[in-house]
């Protein structure tokens, strides 16, 4: 995905900021330059803050977000993974404190045969992020980068801890913390998996940003489902209707989806609420042990999204493909395959 940007005439911070303040868009290379300056520590806190606020106030574009993502990956620690692999992840930020649905869905997809390279971090707006719950389950997060491929071979799943792979993010930490408002960084995590997965299932709570994220993935030529619950959840949900952006062959197709069409009951947000890492870890164990209910349905639905994105074939309607994938996801749980993935993962990282 990286582009050769040598021998180009690079801009300056005054030109970048003036462009944004005037309400004009940056091109991809200008956005790449600006994020490169941030990631390498060449930008002052004032320049970082001014850039993020000006960009947010104007409104990000697909080209701008693509440039930012490319620069962030270029400054990340690399991870080479061969062949097809999938990430299931959400932006966070919906502030609904639900259980770790994408983490459970990742285990289910791995049990169904997909190779999962999950990118994640500790909680920022909830009580338990993916890293927190995995740690509580017994998965070690400090596995050396050179061993992550071995873990993937052993368990069909591995974890890219964002803190380890994106050390350059520290250069934006103070401005982001002191601003205290969402910026482009809040939406870049799911797009900056250092393994650059060939397929992604991404939940985005922000209605304006979700199609932009789909556009970035289309520009990168990956397969993906980007989705958002109409009640603001960054998941495919049984609590409301869902908006879905399917990315294939460089194109984005938007549709609406209601989980009741697959026979799943409409539930409330309280049915999906989580707690701290220990609480959510027990929920993971319960789901993998076959406990039925609203959480299982949500996990099946998001695992199905992952399997649809992972599948290189796109025959049939999205509804039909999700329905078939829900059946595969249920088999992964009920056969014990998903539970075995977790056990192998814990053993492989010990």
UniProtKB/TrEMBL annotation:
Any coiled-coil regions, as ranges: none
Catalytic activity: N-(5-phospho-beta-D-ribosyl)anthranilate + diphosphate = 5-phospho-alpha-D-ribose 1-diphosphate + anthranilate
Protein name: Anthranilate phosphoribosyltransferase
Lineage, highest ranks first: Bacteria, Bacillati, Actinomycetota, Actinomycetes, Micrococcales
Enzyme Commission number(s) from the entry: 2.4.2.18
Positions of anthranilate 2 binding: 176
Family in the record: Belongs to the anthranilate phosphoribosyltransferase family.
Cofactor(s) it depends on: Mg(2+)
Keywords: Amino-acid biosynthesis, Aromatic amino acid biosynthesis, Glycosyltransferase, Magnesium, Metal-binding, Transferase, Tryptophan biosynthesis
UniProt binding sites for Mg(2+) 1: 102, 235
Glycosyl transferase family 3 N-terminal domain boundaries: 15-76
């Amino acid at each position: 995905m990286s582009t050769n940007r040598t021998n180009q005439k690079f801009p300056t911070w005054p030109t970048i900021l003036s462009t944004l303040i005037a309400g004009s868009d940056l091109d991809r290379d200008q956005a790449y330059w600006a994020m490169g300056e941030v990631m390498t520590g060449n930008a002052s806190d004032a320049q970082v803050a001014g850039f993020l606020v000006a960009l947010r106030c104007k409104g990000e574009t697909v080209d701008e977000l693509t440039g930012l993502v490319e620069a962030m990956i270029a400054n990340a620690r690399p991870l080479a993974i061969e062949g097809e692999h999938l990430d299931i992840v959400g932006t966070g930020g919906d502030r609904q404190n639900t259980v770790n649905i994408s983490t459970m869905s990742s285990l289910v997809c791995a049990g169904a045969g997909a190779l999962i390279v999950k990118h994640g971090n500790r909680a920022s707006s909830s009580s338990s992020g993916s890293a927190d719950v995995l740690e509580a389950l017994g998965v070690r997060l400090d596995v050396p980068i050179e061993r992550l491929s071995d873990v993937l071979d052993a368990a069909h799943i591995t974890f890219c801890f964002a803190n380890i792979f994106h050390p350059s993010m520290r250069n934006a930490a103070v401005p982001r913390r002191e601003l205290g408002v969402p910026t482009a960084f809040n939406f870049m995590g799911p797009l900056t998996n250092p393994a650059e997965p060939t397929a992604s299932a991404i939940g985005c709570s922000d209605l304006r940003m979700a199609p932009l994220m789909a556009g970035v993935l289309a520009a990168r030529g990956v397969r993906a489902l980007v989705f958002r619950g109409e009640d603001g959840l960054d998941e495919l949900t049984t609590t409301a209707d869902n908006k879905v952006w399917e990315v294939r062959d460089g194109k984005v197709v938007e549709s609406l989806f209601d989980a009741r069409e697959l026979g799943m009951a409409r539930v409330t947000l309280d049915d999906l609420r989580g707690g701290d890492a220990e609480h959510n870890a027990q929920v993971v164990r319960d789901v993998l042990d076959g406990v039925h209910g609203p959480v299982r349905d949500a996990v099946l639905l998001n695992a199905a999204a992952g399997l649809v994105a992972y599948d290189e074939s796109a025959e049939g309607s999205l509804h039909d493909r999700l329905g078939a994938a829900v059946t595969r996801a249920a088999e992964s749980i009920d056969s014990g395959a998903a539970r075995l993935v977790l056990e192998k993962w814990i053993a492989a990282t010990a």
